[in-house]
Write a structure and sequence with these properties.
The chain is mostly helical and 293 residues long. The protein is built from 13 helices and no strands. Helix 3 runs parallel beside helix 7 and helix 3 packs antiparallel against helix 10. The longest helix has 32 residues. It is globular.
């Protein structure tokens, strides 16, 4: 009993730290979502019910349905290509080869960079007049004239997704490589004896064994991508014509440009509800697929 009390006392600082940095801001943000909270009028802060949510959905500046659709496109295509390329990268790095550690260092280095800085770098690469992307495509004979990657709505989302894929591939590469190295060699030897080829081993041995890692990394990465406005804000700030504006960038604009903490917090609550719903459905579907096996 004395040991248990001592453990409880030692946990108090950690719990206070977590509560102060996570749960208090979360509770405060939810509270502001139901308040008229604007930095230009701090003397008139009061509860207004669901008014902030109504204003966000009906706002002509945000165009909520378009922003919601942009968010789906941003998360889906970023996640799919990050996972596929990250898995391919992990498979390539699974077996030792000369200089592998140095190569891994260069590949995984991008994950340590600041997202906003990456957005600025790629905005220069995608520059419609003197960007490297247009120059390379023209020299390769793929295009005949410069493309306004960040100024044309039909190309802007493609540009920011490509940038986000480049940024997020190392994450899946690191996590999946660690999972692949934990697969026992005996399983592959047994599969080979049973006559399984490389493709059969991939789907019958490798993927089932590392499935817990795949489930957790996909879930976490989905949350991070949806809450990741850095690249979009650095490259397009949600433009042109709201073509790259997602929920996260709308929240940033409301808070840091319009100083409307009430509507900004309302968007944050909407994001939180979407992610919570997605997490529950995703985990239930994964659990059901495991039970069916």
């Amino acid at each position: 009993m004395k040991d248990n009390k001592w453990y409880a006392v030692m946990m108090i600082p950690a719990l206070l730290f977590i509560g102060l940095l996570i749960y208090f801001p979360l509770a405060k943000g939810v509270q502001m979502a139901f308040q008229n909270y604007n930095l230009f009028n701090l003397k008139d802060i009061h509860y207004i019910g669901l008014e902030n949510f109504k204003n966000v959905i009906k706002s002509t500046n945000i165009n909520f349905l378009q922003v919601l659709w942009n968010t789906v496109l941003w998360v889906f295509f970023s996640l799919v290509f990050q996972f596929l390329l990250g898995f391919l990268l992990a498979m390539m790095l699974r077996k030792p080869f000369p200089g592998r550690s140095v190569y891994c260092g260069f590949v995984f280095y991008t994950w340590a960079l600041c997202g906003f800085a990456i957005g600025l770098i790629w905005s220069w690469l995608f520059n419609g007049q003197f960007g490297v992307i247009n120059d390379l495509l023209m020299k390769a004979g793929i295009i005949k004239s410069n493309i306004g990657w960040l100024s044309e709505p039909k190309w802007a989302m493609v540009s920011v997704v490509i940038t986000n894929v480049w940024y997020g591939v190392p994450y899946f590469g690191i996590m999946l490589l660690a999972a692949l190295q934990s697969v026992p060699k005996e399983l592959y030897e047994a599969a080979t004896i049973d006559g399984c080829g490389s493709v059969q081993q991939l789907f019958s041995v490798t993927i089932p064994y590392i499935k817990p890692t795949i489930v957790s990394t996909v879930l976490l990465r989905t949350m991070w991508i949806m809450n990741f406005p850095d690249i979009i804000y650095a490259m397009t700030q949600g433009g042109p014509v709201n073509s790259t504006n997602i929920l996260a960038t709308s929240m940033v604009t409301k808070v840091f440009t319009e100083y409307d903490y009430g509507q900004g917090s309302a968007i944050g609550v909407i994001i939180m509800v979407f992610l919570l719903t997605y997490s529950i459905i995703y985990l239930k579907v994964m659990k059901k697929s495991e039970d069916d096996l």
